[in-house]
Amino acid sequence: MSGFRFAIISALSAAASATNLFVSSYSGDVTTLALSDSNGTYSLNATSSDPNCGPSPAWLTLDASRGTLYCLNEGLTSPNGSMSTFTINRNGSLKHVQNSTTISGPVSGVIYGDPAGDRSIALAHYSGSSLSTYSLTSGGRFEEDESFTFELSQPGPVADRQDAPHPHEAILDPTGQYILVPDLGADLIRVYAIDQKTNAISEKTPLEAPAGSGPRHAKFHNPYKTADEGSTTYLYLATELASTIISYSVSYLPNAGGLEFTQVQEVNALGQLSHARINAPAGIALSPDNRFLLLSNRNSSIFTLPNPDSSNNTAVPSDSITTFSLSESGELGFVQAWPTHGLFPRHFSLNTAGNLVAAANQNSGNVVVLRRDVATGLIGDVVAEAEIEGQVTSVIFGEIGAVNGA
Ligand SMILES: *[C@@H]1O[C@H](CO)[C@@H](O)[C@H](O)[C@H]1NC(C)=O
Ligand SMILES: *[C@@H]1O[C@H](CO)[C@@H](O)[C@H](O)[C@H]1NC(C)=O
Ligand SMILES: *[C@@H]1O[C@H](CO)[C@@H](O)[C@H](O)[C@H]1NC(C)=O
Ligand SMILES: *[C@@H]1O[C@H](CO)[C@@H](O)[C@H](O)[C@H]1NC(C)=O
Ligand SMILES: *[C@@H]1O[C@H](CO)[C@@H](O)[C@H](O)[C@H]1NC(C)=O
Ligand SMILES: *[C@@H]1O[C@H](CO)[C@@H](O)[C@H](O)[C@H]1NC(C)=O
Ligand SMILES: *[C@@H]1O[C@H](CO)[C@@H](O)[C@H](O)[C@H]1NC(C)=O
């Protein structure tokens, strides 16, 4: 009798543990994948796809608590890009709300403003050398607000792809007072103060990154999880062209006057300073427990794996995610490099529990979900995998509290 009851309870809990992942791809679609866990055995299946962010979906920002998804179309084949919004149906499919033309090449977006009041989204435009903002109205609708277009100051480009400013990401500081924009073309992290009443933004003194380093993505870290002006705050910058992570301590100037940065450390993205090699870091994320930093690495294929087709002896190359421990002093400790079972992991995300990592391998067209040991931070086996049409540009977990948008 009790055994029978146990079997029913575990069947129910297995049925309940399905999570949606949202995937953008240059095929033009945003695909919903259902990740189901049946007693530790996972499956990953496409349940719907939506073409309304097409033709070049590059980035997804999830507002999980309001069930709204923002998708950026980079517009690789047109002079402009666009932003599309969706609400999320109970079965994980998307309901399209709005598609509006933007400045060329939006590749990252961050929501800011009063969580209970007026909110906005800031977009970084890679090919359009711009930052733009939109006010969010209700139900996923939005209206154009401000835009800022940048030019290179002399003496001009240092490295390839530094012909013009190329803002690659927009992030919010932990206090919600500033937007930071790593600019790959200009070797700057641009800093904007947010007017707390209107959400208008104004430029402050930027952080200068090393010449030719190519800032791409960055993350803030408060070691004590406090987020006020007086608390210890670090910024970790992933440089795409130099393949490093640079940590800075951050201090807040009075009266929302800007931020000051002091470099703490610079480490090789692959964790092997002595072995310089071609590598292009992409996504950066903190684990949900605030103890580890993860970075995805492209174009270096530091792993060679057995062919998944056991009848084929040809080994296959794989790119990687590196994990570093975080410390109270802002220094990183190398923990692990681990294969993503694919090429060019442009983006990855962690689930709310931190025990799964999903990697979007752009050039091999697959999404791979890997087990992660929360205690040690070590990534492990593949638990599920899905082939995606076209080049995959991002993957996010549809859960409140997940670490999305690396
Ligand atoms: C669940 O998995 C465990 C460990 O693999 C196994 O011992 C158990 O029999 C499985 N239970 C069911 C209902 O499949
Ligand atoms: C889901 O995908 C797995 C492979 O990952 C496959 O074995 C299974 O049949 C699929 N389930 C459905 C409902 O399509
Ligand atoms: C959304 O708008 C952009 C820019 O105007 C356009 O290129 C794109 O085709 C639109 N997407 C769809 C699916 O209509
Ligand atoms: C999911 O829900 C939407 C809205 O209720 C519905 O239109 C759609 O057919 C459903 N899809 C599936 C696969 O059940
Ligand atoms: C389309 O792109 C052009 C050139 O970058 C820009 O001037 C214009 O403002 C863009 N349109 C919109 C609606 O953002
Ligand atoms: C990848 O490496 C090759 C050299 O092997 C280089 O030409 C190319 O620009 C690199 N791509 C990226 C995205 O870093
Ligand atoms: C064996 O695997 C390699 C690498 O994935 C692939 O290029 C090749 O086509 C495969 N050969 C066969 C016969 O499937």
UniProtKB/TrEMBL annotation:
Molecular function as annotated in GO: 6-phosphogluconolactonase activity
Signal sequence, start to end: 1-18
Alphabetical keyword list: Signal
Superkingdom as given in the UniProt entry: Eukaryota
InterPro entries registered for this protein in UniProt: Cycloisomerase_2 (IPR050282), Lactonase_7-beta_prop (IPR019405), N2O_reductase_N (IPR011045), WD40/YVTN_repeat-like_dom_sf (IPR015943)
Stretches for region Disordered: 205-224
Sequence similarity: Belongs to the cycloisomerase 2 family.
Protein name: 6-phosphogluconolactonase
Organism: Cladosporium halotolerans
